[in-house]
Amino acid sequence: MKKSSHFPRLALIICILAAAFYMYEFTLQVSLGVMTSELMRDLGLNAASLGLASAFYYYAYTPMQIPAGLLHDRFGPRRTLTVAILTCASGALCFSFSKGLVDASFGRFLMGIGSAFSFSGALMLIARWFRPQHFAVLSGLVQLMSSVGAIGGEVPLAVAIQHWGWRHSMIWLGFFGIALACIVWLVVRDFPEKQSTPAASTVTTHEHADMFPKLKFIFGRAHVWWTAAYSFLIWAPIAAFAGLWGIPFLASAYHLTTESASIACATIWVGIGLGSPLSGWLSEHIERRCVILATCAVMGTIGSIGVIYLTVSMPVLYFLLFLLGLAGGGQSLAFCVVRDNSHPRSIGAAIGLNNMATVAGGAILQPIIGYLLYKNWNGGMMGQTPVYSVHDYRAALVMIPLCYILAMIVSMKCLKETYCRQQFPF
Questions:
Q1: What pLDDT is recorded for position 214?
Q2: Residue 383, pLDDT score
Q3: Does the residue 351 lie in any domain?
Q4: 115 neighbors 63 (Cβ within 8 angstroms)
Q5: Residue pLDDT, tens place only, 164-204
Q6: 414 CB-near residues (< 8 Å, 6+ apart)
Q7: Three-state DSSP class for 171?
Q8: Is residue 85 assigned to a domain?
Q9: Rounded distance, CA 333 to CA 136, Å?
Q10: pLDDT value at position 322?
Q11: Spatial contact of 18 and 140, defined as CB atoms under 8 Å apart
Q12: 262 lies in some domain
């Protein structure tokens, strides 16, 4: 009796630690949004170069997704997550000492390499330690932790930067990562103890030998690419707006301070935190995936148009930002579609491929918006920092509602409904 009661507690602690890494990497991911003015001033950047530096996170994060899934399959999440957290912490420390675009980009690149292992590692531990029917809700709760991290990377970090500066704040984030890596190494286990170590070793070795047929199997299925397309389209606006350009846009459009704009933008992450587990629960309740995915895309379309192109009162603005966050719940539910359609031997790589498509939005959309801002800039300056008008922002942010419209089309016309049932036996 004692052992059976211990098992759920250990499973919960392990998954909380994995989710804590996801929270940490999201804090790093969105951190540049609250220090745009400081970075432009201290490192001599403009909107185009800042967008490029920020995107280096995704240049590493995106192509590492499939290798991360395969490495999780091969070596187990305990080892891979520990090394990955240390890599993130190293990136934060390097970024804190950067003197220009190259240094800052290198620090972001290291953060992206380490962060690539966070979400897939958490989902793999959930798949191993919990029953399949819990996957949708628990993956949504992991996404909730990312929202907590994103809020921490905006509101508290904005306050910390105001008091101690961006360099010292990033140093403390690096130290936090080192401490988290030590705890993960000491506590996390790859499998429940009822599974013997030889069996686990046999599985991972066989999966490693079967790597290329596994990738061929995944890449050859049309539904994999349509799910990846939806994931890209539903998350790219979040990465671009909430992750970087939303705070300076809100500050310009509504005459807010950076701290007040970060509080408003944090409403998006609150919506994501609630919408991710809610979308999973609703999907399981009605036994449908596609209708929830389409609803998320519709909410994103309405919310983005209202936030960017309408001048509304502050309560309405907060509601529309919250609606944008609810739309982000579709990203979490897309991973349930991946699991529904994945063979047990390829689930790590399948999750990695879908996460690669998800985070590619930041790599592509952040610098595109920065470039459009730079091209439309009228030459206004505040000291050494370029100033962009509301008209400049609205012209550059047109890509955001367009992504949501395309996501709506994909979810309604291209995705095959799984009815929440496994297409392969687990």
A1: 60
A2: 52
A3: yes
A4: no
A5: 888 999 999 999 999 999 999 999 888 876 554 444 434 44
A6: 226, 229, 230
A7: helix
A8: yes
A9: 7
A10: 96
A11: no
A12: yes
* Number of domains present in the structure of the chain: 1
Determine the structural domain holding residue 151 and report its residue range.
Answer: 11-190+198-413
Q: How far apart are CA 104 and CA 197, in angstroms?
A: 42
Provide CB contacts within 8 A for 255, sequence distance 6+. Answer: none
Tell me the pLDDT tens digit for each residue of 92-140.
999 999 988 999 999 999 999 999 899 888 888 887 888 776 777 787 7
Residue 386's DSSP bridge partners are: 381
At 166, list the tokens.
């961006």
Nearest-angstrom CA–CA distance, 298 and 284:
20
Q: How far apart are CA 277 and CA 147, in angstroms?
A: 12
Q: What is the pLDDT of residue 4?
A: 42
The DSSP line for 129-181 is HS-GGGHHHHHHHHHHHHHHHHHHTTHHHHHHHHHHHHHHHHHHHHHHHHHHH
State residue 33's pLDDT score.
Answer: 78
The CA–CA distances, whole Å, from 390 to 258, 280, 317, 386, 402 equal 15, 36, 16, 13, 19
Length of the chain: 426
Q: Which residue stretches of the chain have pLDDT < 50?
A: 1-7, 196-209, 426
Asked, for residue 240, whether it belongs to a domain, the answer is: yes
Query: How confident is the model at residue 3, as a pLDDT?
Result: 42
* pTM score of the predicted model: 0.72
Both tokens assigned to 100 = 């220009």
CATH for 330: 1.20.1250.20
Token pair in block for residue 146? 């990312």
Structure tokens at 398: 């047109």
Residues in contact with 159: Cβ distance below 8 Å, sequence separation at least 6, in sequence order? 259
Read out DSSP for 261-287?
HHHHHHHHHHHHHHHHHHHHHHHHHHT
- Other C-beta atoms closer than 10 Å to the C-beta of 207 total 18
Q: What is the pLDDT of residue 6?
A: 42
Phi-psi region of 419 (alpha: psi -120 to 50; beta: other; left: phi over 0): left
Provide the 3-class DSSP secondary structure of residue 190: coil
- Residues 149 and 27 sit within 8 Å (Cβ to Cβ): yes
Largest CA distance in the chain: 71
Looking at this protein, which amino acid is placed at residue 363? A
Nearest Cα to 170, choosing from 102, 88, 227, 71?
A: 88
What is the spatial distance between Cα 104 and Cα 118, in angstroms, rounded to a whole number? 22
What is the amino acid identity at position 261?
Answer: A
Q: Which run of H or E residues covers position 386?
A: strand 385-386
- What tokens does 307 get? 């936030």
Looking at residue 36, its pLDDT comes to 81
